[in-house]
Specification:
- By secondary structure, this protein is of the alpha/beta class.
- The chain is about 30% helix and about 25% strand.
Length: about 325
Amino acid sequence: MKAVGFNQPRAIEDVHALEDIQLEQPKPGPRDLLVAVEAVSVNPVDTKVRQRPLAEKGHKVLGYDAAGRVEAVGAEVRDFLPGDRVWYAGAMQRQGSNAQYQCVDERLVAKMPEGTGMQEAAALPLTVLTAWESLTDQLGLTPENAAGKTLLMVGGAGGVGSIATQLAARHFGMTVIATAGRQTSADWCTAMGATHTIDYRNGLREPMKGLGIDQVDAILLAQEPDAYWSDACELVAPLGGIVTIVDARGPLDVNPLKPKSARFAWEFMFTRALFGVDMERQGEILRAAARLMEEGVLQTTLSESLGPINAANLKEAHRRIESGKTIGKLVLAGWE
């Protein structure tokens, strides 16, 4: 089968940073689905893993977001049949979705939203799971308890920020303030449901004061947290919470959160698959998100399709993500 992989960390400008390769088609394990991959999207985690040394020789296939059709099922699979249209974000420790066929544990998978195309669906799973887990599993927010509260979304125009804004504003009934450094980013955030946008280059506290907002109930940091940490601790409300999805460069002082009894949490979407705990939760979230897509509450965050799935187009996607200027999600679809 066709696939795209890398065999050692290289800068994206290197001609061998990602390569078109041929691999044996995988065979599904007892709880696996064998999926014929039709569309994928690219996330910052792809670029980070590409720059890490490999533990074993050979090519590592990247790719986490995927949409496709079930080709075959393992002996213990009960909820899926060949031909089902599915979406998922997969597991970091297995070969990824940048291949014609991929094996994925059924517990991480859901059937695609009705009426949604493969490319539109492929843009979403990793960011839906990250945003949903951040807001609900980590910060305890639900439509029942979050209505009327405020969310500060740092990194509003990125993949996670785009879907977290939609979830918070349209599903939870929250007021969302999103950071954006360019007018195009601010316009995108507004389209996703943000009530206000602020320029992160001026810090967080002063722009928030300019809006007449002294504190917020929840903060999601989808950027490296170090530069925003002091402001976030100042802005978070008593009994509120901060969640971040990006590694910090140095220690974060959580002591300022104690007087407020404010919570802090890390969110890593791959935890469940990595440790084999509560994996069914991700299928559950994707099923719930599919219903919201069908109801028109959520929309795809696909911003551009870069063509078929091959090394050249994936390198372009990695290059754009590493520039830090992408809005929404970049998608590739089909095989040549």
